[in-house]
């Protein structure tokens, strides 16, 4: 089995640091990420400009399958970076990166995730639906950005 990699890119009409803080606010994920049932931050060290680094534990579910995993999270709004790396859980591998760069339309957002589940059936199901998964993740964050940061500014 190999890793599945999902990438998505969008231009959003918000400041890169604001979007970075939104993505770094992992405690709010269960409110807007469809398959995330619970998330708690176990350890947290504050950083500059609303950033932080620490350990988070999540419970995700698809139909009858529920899995728990832990990740290290690093959020640095000043750099426009959020990185997530596997600590433990149902994956052989899990890495996730968000990058936020200034753009004339607001911010260029790049999302990248690479993973491999230990369960081959789960791996195959998620791999077969990877494009749908990427779209749902980006759409969830775009809706949350509109809710928190306001509608697209008019010129």
Q: What do you see in this structure?
A:
With 155 residues, the chain is an alpha+beta fold. It has one domain: 2-Layer Sandwich (Alpha-D-Glucose-1,6-Bisphosphate, Chain A, domain 4). The chain has four helices and seven strands; from the N terminus they run βααββββββαα. It has helices at residues 16-24, 29-32, 120-128, 130-149; strands at residues 4-12, 36-46, 52-62, 65-76, 81-88, 91-103, 106-117. It has a seven-stranded antiparallel β-sheet with strand order 1-7-6-5-4-3-2. Helix 1 (16-24) packs across helix 4. The radius of gyration is 15 Å and the shape is globular. The chain starts with a strand and ends in a 6-residue tail after the last helix.
In short:
This protein has 155 residues and is α+β, with helices and mostly antiparallel strands. The chain has helices at residues 16-24, 29-32, 120-128, 130-149; strands spanning 4-12, 36-46, 52-62, 65-76, 81-88, 91-103, 106-117. The chain has a seven-stranded antiparallel sheet.
Entry keywords:
155 residues; alpha+beta; Alpha-D-Glucose-1,6-Bisphosphate, Chain A, domain 4; 7 strands; 27% helix; 49% strand; globular
Radius of gyration: 15 Å
- Look at the helices and sheets and give the structural class: alpha+beta
In CATH, the homologous superfamily goes by the name: START domain
- State which percent range the strand residues make up: over 45%
Architecture, according to CATH?
A: 2-Layer Sandwich
Total beta-strand segments = 7
**What is the number of helical segments per DSSP (H or I, 4+ residues)?**
4
In the CATH hierarchy, the third-tier topology is known as: Alpha-D-Glucose-1,6-Bisphosphate, Chain A, domain 4
Class in CATH? Alpha Beta
Overall tally of structural domains: 1
Q: Which regions contain 5 or more consecutive residues with pLDDT less than 50?
A: none
How would a textbook summarize the main sheet?
7 strands, antiparallel
Q: What integer is the average pLDDT? A: 90
| Helix-residue proportion | 25-40%
Given the C-alpha coordinates, what overall shape results? globular
Distance between the termini: 49 Å
Quaternary structure: single chain
User: How are helices and strands ordered from N to C?
Assistant: EHHEEEEEEHH
């Amino acid at each position: 089995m190999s890793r599945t990699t999902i990438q998505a890119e969008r231009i959003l009409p918000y400041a890169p640091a604001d979007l970075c803080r939104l993505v770094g606010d992992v405690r709010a994920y269960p409110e807007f990420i469809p398959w995330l049932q619970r998330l708690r931050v176990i350890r947290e060290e504050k950083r500059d400009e609303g950033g932080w680094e620490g350990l988070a534990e999540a419970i995700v579910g698809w139909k009858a399958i529920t899995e728990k995993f832990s990740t290290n999270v690093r959020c640095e709004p000043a750099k426009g970076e959020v990185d997530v790396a596997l600590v433990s859980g149902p994956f052989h591998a899990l890495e996730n990166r968000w990058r936020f760069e200034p753009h004339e339309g607001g911010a260029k957002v790049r999302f990248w995730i690479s993973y491999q589940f230990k369960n081959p059936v789960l791996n195959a199901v998620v791999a077969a639906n990877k494009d749908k998964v990427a779209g749902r993740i980006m759409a969830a964050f775009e809706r949350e950005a509109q809710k928190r940061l306001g509608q697209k500014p008019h010129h």
